[in-house]
Design brief:
This protein is an alpha/beta fold. It is built from 20 helices and 14 strands. The strands form two sheets. The protein has a seven-stranded parallel β-sheet with strand order 3-2-1-4-5-6-7, sandwiched between helices. It has a seven-stranded parallel β-sheet with strand order 10-11-9-8-12-13-14. Strand 12, helix 16 and strand 13 (346-349) form a beta-alpha-beta unit. Helix 5 crosses helix 20 and helix 13 (245-252) crosses helix 18 (377-392). The protein starts with a helix and ends in a 10-residue tail after the last helix.
């Protein structure tokens, strides 16, 4: 089965090769490392923990876990890997001074995985969320490392796909020593696709533990001052948007930015920044500015702000009055609502939130979120208008939603400590806690 898997991976790689050439910045970034060519990593006798994130979302979620690992296991070295360039850039920015290396995750072939394992010699490999890489898991196990899924989640869609190859997945998952899942639903799903239930535990969602850092707070004050966000007009933040959500939001707020509110748009993917710029250039009815442009006095009067920067959305949330969480008006599955919730903001999402269904249910049950029903495309703008206008004209309702969201966050904190406690308990010979 592993031979078939490697062949299919190679076939996918060959099919993707034109993208590597045409969009090198995104798809070919870290190419040498992904083939197993890493900088020399000297063995100083300390054991190594390897934490793998995928992209920006998992990297942000790993913040509290990284801090707790460094505090608890002070005699260990920590390396971080990501798959995407945006994840790599963010990881270097927030973890570069804390960890021993930030690297690209190897392509999941035997030769590249073995080169990575031989170079870093991890004793513990932690895979964030749904990162099930068969060859990495197999080779890590053969090398003597422990393999753990942390903050694990498995959507219904992913579970159905994996169930079609359950015999292979069972063979892969037998090499996973522990699966620490976000919810009972996630735990049941990973057991159904082949994970030994005795190795599956629910520890909660690490994203409930994410908080503001000093750097975030300083960035918040910079953005507040630069763009003159003073509370006179409510700020609507369209967060992690996907095409065509920016257009739908602007159309739904037609005429409102600059009058009853201001709007900040933060596209989910940096490669879409320019397309949003092109769209805004055709909207002559608004004064809009780019975060990446040189600062000018007129920034303070902008109706629409484009946050075309990386890693600053967390710092924007405290300034918001209403947050629309993107990727939810289209069948993408939604982006995380937990960061705006952690600072007590009124939130609106679309109906497509299956990537975060467990969290969405909690927030809806506690009146901490407005979720639009599933709608035909021609009704989206009118329903968004109703949701935004109701909140813009009712400050008490905004406050109520925000307080409820913060309360849900507070009740569900603690996943980070639970995760590290599990690691310490199950792998005492691998993780000798340092003096904290």
């Amino acid at each position: 089965m592993y031979l078939i898997y490697s062949f299919l991976l190679l076939l996918g790689f060959l099919l993707m090769s034109p993208l590597f050439l045409l969009r090198r910045e995104k798809y070919a970034s870290g190419f040498k490392q992904r083939l197993g060519n890493y900088p020399a990593f000297d063995d100083d006798g300390r054991k190594v923990i390897w934490l793998h994130c995928v992209s920006v979302g998992e990297t942000n979620a790993a913040r509290p876990l990284v801090d707790q690992l460094l505090e608890t296991f002070q005699d260990h070295r920590l390396i971080i890997s990501t798959t995407t360039k945006t994840g790599q850039d963010l990881a270097r920015k927030i973890f570069g001074n804390k960890t021993d290396a930030v690297i690209y995750f190897p392509f999941d072939w035997k030769f590249s995985v073995r080169k990575a394992l031989d170079n870093y010699k991890p004793s513990l490999v932690l895979l964030m969320e749904t990162e099930i890489w068969p060859r990495l898991i197999r080779e890590a196990k053969l090398s003597g490392a422990k393999v753990v899924i942390v903050n694990g989640r498995l959507s219904e869609r992913s579970s159905q796909r994996y169930s079609k190859i359950r015999s292979f997945m069972k063979n892969v998952l037998k090499d996973v020593d522990l699966a620490l899942m976000q919810s009972e639903t996630d735990a049941n799903r990973i057991s159904l696709i082949g994970m030994d239930p005795a190795k599956v535990f629910v520890t909660g969602n690490l994203k409930f533990d994410v908080g503001m850092t000093e750097a975030d707070i300083a960035k918040t004050e910079y953005i507040r001052d630069r763009f003159g966000i003073n509370g006179e007009l409510p700020l609507v933040v369209a967060a992690s948007t996907h095409d065509p959500e920016e257009r739908w939001i602007l159309e739904s707020l037609d005429g409102e930015p600059g009058n009853s509110c201001r709007l900040l748009i933060a596209p989910r993917h940096p490669e879409r920044f320019q397309s949003v710029v092109n769209y805004l250039r055709n909207r002559t009815d608004y004064h809009w500015v780019r975060r990446s442009a040189p600062q000018v006095d007129s920034d303070k009067n902008a109706d629409v702000i484009l946050l075309d920067s990386l890693g600053e959305l967390r710092a924007v949330y405290p300034l918001a009055d209403i947050v629309f969480v993107g990727g939810s008006l289209i069948p993408h599955g939604g982006q995380s609502i937990l960061e705006p919730a952690s600072v007590g903001k009124a939130m609106v999402t679309g109906s497509h939130t299956h990537n975060f269904s467990h969290a969405i249910r909690k927030f809806r049950a506690n009146d901490a979120l407005i979720q639009l029903p599933e709608l035909p495309i021609w009704e989206i703008e009118s329903e968004l208008f109703k949701a935004f206008s109701d909140l813009l004209t009712n400050a008490d309702r905004r406050t109520e939603l925000g307080k409820n969201a913060a309360a849900v966050m507070n009740v569900n904190r603690g996943a980070t400590v639970k995760t590290v406690d599990f690691l310490s308990h199950y792998f005492p010979n691998t993780l000798e806690a340092g003096n904290s």
